[in-house]
Design goal:
Layout lengths: L2 H5 L4 E3 L14 H10 L6 H15 L4 E5 L2 H14 L3 H6 L9 E5 L16 E5 L7 H7 L4 E7 L11 H10 L4 E4 L9 H8 L3 E5 L11 E5 L1 H10 L14 H16 L2 H21 L3 E6 L13 E6 L4 H10 L3 E3 L1 E3 L2 E4 L6 H13 L3
Parallel strand pairs: 1-11, 3-4, 3-5, 5-6, 6-7
Antiparallel strand pairs: 2-8, 7-8, 9-10, 10-13, 12-13
Bound molecules: pyridoxal-5'-phosphate.
């Protein structure tokens, strides 16, 4: 009997994606093995944390890396680092920001539910522009002696009120404002690991529990050495605002192994498999005649990764919501997404053996 059965919690066939509320991702056996090995010994956490960060930075060709317990923790840590820098007294004073720069600039249309993490360090968010419009001149005008950092949410880059990062970086560099990019769910493609740093971003945040397929509570901060050092110094077991974002030796080992595996993967093949899976599901579901079925890529902002082919299903006899709810009530639950009257399946977290189950469940619940 597994722990989920014991607790009476249904497992999920995940046609949605690497989403925290349904478990993030599933770890490879090699990652679990690294975690098990790590669990057998005592070790100085600071020494391990730094050594693993240094190794991952080398692997990912970044100046430096700090492992976190998630990309949201990365937002909090990066903000604390930009506010207190490498001053140990200031670090202990947070979230009281008296005597420190504490304004975080961001485009209004980049506001996301995760940005509450910015406030944990005592930062004040300054929104720039309107939901549907912003211009570089407004960013420049918002910079003052209290500005601590600029926060950019990569998945909102294509929104109407957004500005491309390369247009903003020179303005922010000129005034010495560190740029932090939230790229939590921007993998694949693998090239996104270095993309924002090449543009000149100072820190870039990734989730370890999404496509990196590390422990669900893991993440990476990549970038500038002095700022990463400030993140490192703020991390548990050291005392600072991030003491409550503890990272354990098993997670450090797990994400380290997961990064190695991520770099070994043949993404061309993986994309091919995802495309095949979506085409198979679309063809099979279409055969029943009870829905309009198509494949395609998401083009609305905020849906990441956008480059994986999805299946879109518009039921003919029921609403998409009714079908979606029926799928959730099954055991195992079938998780999909729902967008504009269509059920959406993302193959990213499915394995071949689950395809028939998901097709049968959808066909069986369309009428
Ligand atoms: C998932 C996500 C996060 C949070 O990542 P965790 O690793 O779950 O903390 C933050 N920002 C964005 C844009 C995300 O998609």
């Amino acid at each position: 009997m597994n722990i989920y059965k014991q607790l009476g919690v249904k497992t999920i066939i995940n046609g949605f994606g690497t989403v925290s509320k349904i478990g993030g991702s599933v770890m490879a056996p090699e990652v679990l093995q690294a975690m098990t090995e790590a669990s057998k010994h005592y070790v100085e956490i600071n020494t391990l944390h730094r050594a693993a960060g240094k190794y991952i930075a080398e692997l990912l060709e970044s100046e430096a890396c700090c492992i976190t317990c998630g990309a949201a923790a990365g937002i909090a840590l990066a903000t604390a680092a930009c506010i207190a820098r490498n001053d140990p007294v200031k670090r202990l004073q947070l979230p009281n920001v008296e005597g420190m720069k504490n304004e975080v600039l961001m485009l209004k249309c980049h506001r996301i539910l995760y940005d509450q993490a910015l406030l944990l360090s005592g930062a004040k968010v300054v929104e720039i522009g309107a939901t549907s419009f912003a211009m570089p001149e407004q960013v420049e005008a918002a910079i003052n002696e209290k500005t601590a950092m600029f926060f950019y949410v990569s998945e909102n880059e294509s929104m109407r009120g957004s500005i491309e990062l390369p247009r903003l970086i020179p303005i922010l560099k000129k005034r010495d404002v560190p740029v932090v990019v939230d790229a939590a769910a921007e993998l694949p493609p693998r090239s996104n690991i270095s993309k924002y740093q090449k543009m000149g971003a100072d820190l870039v945040l990734f989730s370890g529990g999404k496509e990196l397929r590390g422990p669900q509570s893991s993440g990476l901060i990549l970038g500038r050495k002095d700022l990463v050092e400030a993140c490192q110094a703020s991390s548990s077991p050291n005392y600072s605002i991030a003491r409550s974002m503890k990272i354990d030796k098993e997670t450090i080992a797990g994400i380290t192994r997961a990064v190695e595996l991520f770099l070994e993967k043949d993404y061309e093949k993986i994309y091919e498999t995802w495309t095949k899976m979506s085409n198979f599901m679309a063809t099979e579901i279409d055969k029943c005649g009870k829905a309009f079925v198509r494949t395609g890529f998401p083009h609305e902002a905020g849906i990441q990764p956008a480059n994986i082919l999805r299946v879109y299903i518009q039921p003919k006899e029921k609403t998409a919501q009714e079908v979606y709810d029926r799928l959730l009530s099954l055991d195992p639950q079938i998780y999909t997404d729902i967008r504009g009257g269509e059920i959406v399946i993302n193959p990213q977290c499915l394995n071949e053996s689950e395809l028939k189950s998901i097709v049968d469940a959808i066909v069986g619940n369309l009428s």
